[in-house]
Amino acid sequence: VQLQASGGGLVQAGGSLGLSCAASGLTFSSYAMAWFRQAPGKEREFVAARRWIGGSTNYADSVKGRFTISRDNAKNTVYLQMNSLKPEDTAVYYCAAGRPITSTITKGRSYDYWGQGTQVTVSS
User: Which of 11, 20, 66, 98 yields a CA-CA distance of 20 to 30 A from 46?
Assistant: First the structure.
């Protein structure tokens, strides 16, 4: 299984950035897909997830209304559109695939496969 994240970069506060994560080696439509992030000196934290059934989504409170997770099962790809970016969004962003139950969808331990991470830097 491979998850290849891309799309990170440097953006000014208030700007937008889109991340992509292409998956291979798994039945993509049978997995929930999520984004996590880790800032320097901080623990990894949940950002967003989209289930494989019904398409329901979950977001961290810190990104609600600014970030949107979507997926294209035909392309085996999950996306994270990030708008109104803030300096505190600066982190390495990781995509993940798993089959979590509803109560653990925000927990990293619920995901089996992880991408390599892509750096997002938001300047003030």
Answer: 11
